[in-house]
Amino acid sequence: MKISALRLFNVKRFAGRGVAIEGIDDGVNVLCAANEFGKSTSFEALHALFFQPHSSGSGDVKNLRPYSGGSPLVESDIATGEGRFRITKQYFVGRSARVTDLATGQLVAQADEAENFIASLVKGGTAGPAGLLWVRQGVTGIERRSRSEEEDEREVRRTLLESVQGEVEAVTGGRRMTEILSATQQALSELVTATGRPKAGRRYAGAIEDRDRLTEDEQKLAGEVTVLREKLDQRASATKTLAELDRAEARQERRKALEAAQAAFDAAKSQSEKLRTAEAELRLALERREGAEINLLTFRAAMERARELRQKQLSAEDRRRQAVDKRREVSEAIAKATAEAEAAEAGEREARDLLARLDAALKAREAFERLSQLKEQLARAEATREELERGEAELSLLKLPSSAIDELQDLDVEIATLHAVEEAARPSVSVDYQADASGLVTMDGDPLSDGQERTYDGQARLSVPGIGTIKLRSNRPPRSDDRLEQAQAKRRTLLSSMGVDDLATARKRQVQAQQMDAGLGELRGRLSQLAPQGLPRLREDVAAQSAVESEVLELKADPAQVRTSHAEAEERLTAARLAMREMEPLRLSVDNAFIAAETESASLNAEQAQIDSILGPEEERAVREQQLVKAFDDRERSRAEAETNAKKLSDNATDLDSAGAALKRARSVEEVSEKEIHRLRETIAGLNAGIRARADEAVEEKWRETTDALSSATARVAAFEKEVAVLQRLASALETARSQARELYLKPVMTELKPLLGLLFDDVSITFDDKSLLPQAIRRNGQEEDVDRLSGGMREQLSVLTRLAFARLLARDGRPAPVILDDALVYSDDDRIEKMFDALHRQSSDQQIIVFSCRQRAFQKLGGNILQMTEWQP
């Protein structure tokens, strides 16, 4: 089996989209891209396509779904010995499986039949060859894994080697060894299972059950004895502790400590309340003192501001008076300029009206002249049009179809040809007279000239003067066709339809029609000159010009003088408007000055009113200032007294939190002591009951008896264990002897692996484990090293090389399977990885190898068929 394409849709990171890997060829194929590109996703999708049924809901299938959910779709094109097929699977909603023949497009199998088809390709699922050769990211195949996985792969390798080399029994020999090994295994099977566990229902298992039961009883009784002794110790300790806590002196001490702590807490609480009151009075005094200070400062600031406002108000009043005067002057000048502009506008308007009437009169005269021209042009165009229509009518009667004339010519030629053929076939007579001939020979009464050839039909009579009459008979058979008559009838019909007598008349009419058509072309050109846009448009222009007043306006004024007056009026108007425009900025300036003066005056008046409301009547201001100063001094004294009182209380105050903590601790000691006394009394009562119950059951005597019985059962189990160990040692020795004869067993793998190792290492040999059939140790430089102790890169390389060797064995056995490596070379250095690339190409001569990797720079040196991911829509 070889893979040629892979496509997936809605798989993991490709939610709602599809990608395709096309053009997978024989040999080495490489898909190299950055992390999170979808390489491992493609590997997992391909693995699920071949190893997970479409109806599965296992964890591997669930992992294919993107976070947004949906139904993953996976599709692959493969080539086998039977042909090329397309395998398609969809999981979850709309789950399906299909196999299609790519050559014919026919559906080969679906559902369970499709699963059977796929199973026949991979032969054993993940425990088959493909499961052995497809390497997931981070898995080498040498590392420790679950026992079931290792056993499955070992069985695949063993079956493969046997199919290549033959059964192991063929090389071990020795029936005796087999019989001894069989007997040993039989004896072991009486005692233990294949995994070494005691077999249920047999002696060994029964002895172990007795020992385990006695061990359980002994442990139970020993526990009860231990519990009994612990309870005795607990009761003694609890009695002692209770006696100490329940003493009268201890109770009295705890009570006194609680009372003292309560008194200290009450005193501290009272001091704290007094301190809070003093601090509140201090805050109130501070606020009052600040209020008095603010009132005093505000009053003094208002007095200062009142003096400043007096000066500003005087200045503002002067500026307002000046702005009012300037505004009045500018208003008068603007009014004068406005009157001048209005007069200029009236004069300009009058001159403009006169000029407009003059222009209208000129345009009316021009329109009248234009109307006369258009009427004349229309008359000529209509006359030309009438002549053109008459000519076209005559031309339509005179014109003959060119095809009909050509057809008439062909018929004349054909008739002449038929006449010539017929004439050539008729018999003829000619006479050559002597010089002294006395008369002419006649044919049917017509004389024959010298050398004249004349034809005849049927028969003819020749009269020869002086001789007699000669009768001529042609005896020619009549014509077998009527082509000549048909052609003549067709010619007559065509002449009748054309209205002519012969071809010459038709040609003459054709020439006349061509000459007439040329004359009509000249008329059309003349008409297009007279009416370029057509007669309807020319008529519309005449009608439009006729709508203008036909009466020509009388021109009484001189046009030049009118235009000069209009120009002077426009200049006077422009000058007046410029004067007004020059006044506009001045008016805006004086208006702004007036507004600013008014605004300033209003603002100062408002501020003055606010100051007056603060200061009050001017004659009372000095008295009010003295009152504010006295109020501030009183508030300052009150603040100092409150601050002194608060500081004194703060210095003498006891820490309320400390007193509360001490009270809390004293109460806790009292409560805990009472609870502990109560608990100890209940504990002692419970311990007394348990001790009395176990003392009555004689627990210690039963424990000693069970201990003796356990010793006997343990000795019996030890005897069975010794017997099993001896049998297992014997079986191991026999298996070792057999393993020594298994060199030939691993010879095919070593044969394939040796040249691959030579590409990477110098003088290195590998020892395989005859049980797992995997590399166990390597020997280099005279030293042997376990595979488990090798570096990660070397273990990785050995794993890949071993799989390449097994892949070659599969190909030789007629079961080729692709080797798929998902980032399988991540620990190899630069030199070693290039040698691994050589090994891959060496094995790809008859093998398909697909490599996924994120190491873009390193894998550029691998070469091979470079694969790309493209967008795909199912």
Can you walk me through this structure?
The protein has 874 residues and is of the alpha+beta class. Among the domains are: 2-173 and 741-871, 3-Layer(aba) Sandwich (Rossmann fold), CATH 3.40.50.300; 174-245 and 656-740, no CATH class; 437-475, no CATH class. The chain contains 20 helices and 21 strands. Strands 7-6-5-4-1-2-21 form a seven-stranded antiparallel sheet. Strand 5 (83-90) and strand 6 (96-101) form a beta hairpin. Helix 5 packs across helix 18 and helix 9 packs across helix 16 (656-697).
Short description:
The protein is an alpha+beta fold. Helices cover 65% and strands 12% of the residues. It is flat, with a radius of gyration of 67 Å.
Question: Which structural class should the secondary elements be placed in?
Answer: alpha+beta
Indicate the CATH architecture of the domain at 2-173 and 741-871: 3-Layer(aba) Sandwich
Number of helices: 20
Q: Describe the strand arrangement of the main beta sheet, using strand numbers.
A: 7-6-5-4-1-2-21
* The top level CATH class name of the domain at 2-173 and 741-871: Alpha Beta
CATH homologous superfamily identity of the domain at 2-173 and 741-871:
P-loop containing nucleotide triphosphate hydrolases
* Largest sheet entry: 7 strands, antiparallel
Q: Could you say what the CATH topology of the domain at 2-173 and 741-871 is called?
A: Rossmann fold
Proportion of beta-strand residues? 5-15%
Rg estimate, integer Å: 67 Å
Q: Please identify the oligomeric state.
A: single chain
Secondary-structure map:
Blueprint: E1 2-11, E2 14-21, E3 27-32, H1 39-51, H2 59-62, E4 73-80, E5 83-90, E6 96-101, E7 107-110, H3 112-122, H4 129-133, E8 134-135, H5 147-165, H6 169-172, H7 175-191, H8 203-245, H9 248-398, H10 402-425, E9 428-430, E10 442-443, E11 446-447, E12 453-455, E13 459-464, E14 468-473, H11 483-498, H12 503-530, H13 535-546, H14 559-615, H15 621-652, H16 656-697, H17 699-739, H18 743-760, E15 764-768, E16 775-780, E17 783-786, H19 792-812, E18 819-822, H20 830-843, E19 848-853, E20 865-866, E21 869-871
Parallel strand pairs: 3-19, 3-20, 8-18, 18-19
Antiparallel strand pairs: 1-2, 1-4, 2-21, 4-5, 5-6, 6-7, 9-12, 10-11, 10-13, 13-14, 15-16, 16-17
Helix pairs in contact: 5-18, 5-19, 7-17, 8-16, 8-17, 9-12, 9-13, 9-14, 9-15, 9-16, 10-11, 10-12, 18-19, 19-20
